[in-house]
């Protein structure tokens, strides 16, 4: 009886204070087909059902991890995963700051644009393999191609994505170094005028 009371007290003090934050975060990321209140209830039920509850002291992080896994499970079952959904899942990692979340979302949008620009068959193979995690044999069967042709399309897609990503990174670094140089020049000018 004491253990049951202790678990209820843990649930009330460690988890329930974060229910509103969980609900707000899920409200922003759940697909329209997924019911918010059902998802919140499922997350809380799974959290309460944990056997080693005494070890859980970071209630918010624990609830967000359960929610993230639940959303991933539902997306896998539905076999519909957009890059936007993947970016939104990052919002459930509570230890990531807002700047990190924005950077991750921006990076995923860049990858989505690169993938959208791939030749049609390369794009389809890439998405079936990397997003839907299908085997090469499954992809070959679905597309009516040989496994070696699927492998060539995937290799080509990966090469294009990596090349485009590398070019974007170089461009970002060049912009950052140009900005840093301009900032240093402005700082020197301000320092000189202040000294005068």
UniProtKB/TrEMBL annotation:
Residues 172-186 have a biased composition (Basic and acidic residues). Residues 18-79 form the RNA polymerase sigma-70 region domain. Keywords: Sigma factor, Transcription, Transcription regulation. It comes from the Bacteria. Residues 109-158 form the RNA polymerase sigma factor 70 region 4 type domain. Pfam families: Sigma70_r2, Sigma70_r4_2. The keyword Transcription applies. GO terms for biological process: DNA-templated transcription initiation. GO terms for molecular function: DNA binding; sigma factor activity. The keyword Chloroplast does not apply. SUPFAM superfamilies: Sigma2 domain of RNA polymerase sigma factors (SSF88946), Sigma3 and sigma4 domains of RNA polymerase sigma factors (SSF88659). Residues 172-196 are annotated as: Disordered. Belongs to the sigma-70 factor family. ECF subfamily. PANTHER family: RNA POLYMERASE ECF-TYPE SIGMA FACTO, RNA POLYMERASE SIGMA FACTOR FECI-RELATED. This is Sigma-70 family RNA polymerase sigma factor. The lineage of its organism: Bacteria, Pseudomonadati, Pseudomonadota, Alphaproteobacteria, Sphingomonadales.
């Amino acid at each position: 009886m004491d253990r049951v009371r202790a678990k209820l007290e843990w649930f009330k003090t460690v988890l329930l204070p974060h229910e509103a934050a969980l609900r707000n975060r899920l409200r922003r990321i759940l697909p329209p087909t997924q019911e918010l209140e059902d998802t919140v209830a499922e997350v809380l039920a799974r959290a309460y059902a944990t056997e080693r509850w005494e070890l859980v002291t970071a209630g918010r992080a624990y609830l967000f991890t359960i929610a993230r896994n639940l959303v991933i499970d539902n997306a896998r079952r539905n076999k519909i995963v957009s890059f936007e959904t993947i970016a939104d899942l990052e919002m459930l990692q509570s230890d990531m700051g807002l700047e990190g979340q924005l950077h991750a979302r921006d990076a995923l949008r860049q990858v989505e644009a690169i993938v959208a620009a791939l030749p049609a068959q390369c794009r389809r193979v890439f998405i079936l393999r990397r997003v839907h995690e299908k085997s090469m044999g499954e992809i070959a069967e679905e597309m009516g191609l040989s496994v070696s042709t699927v492998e060539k399309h995937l290799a080509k897609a990966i090469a294009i994505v990596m090349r485009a990503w590398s070019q974007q990174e170089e461009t970002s670094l060049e912009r950052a170094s140009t900005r840093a140089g301009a900032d240093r020049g402005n700082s020197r000018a301000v320092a000189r005028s202040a000294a005068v």
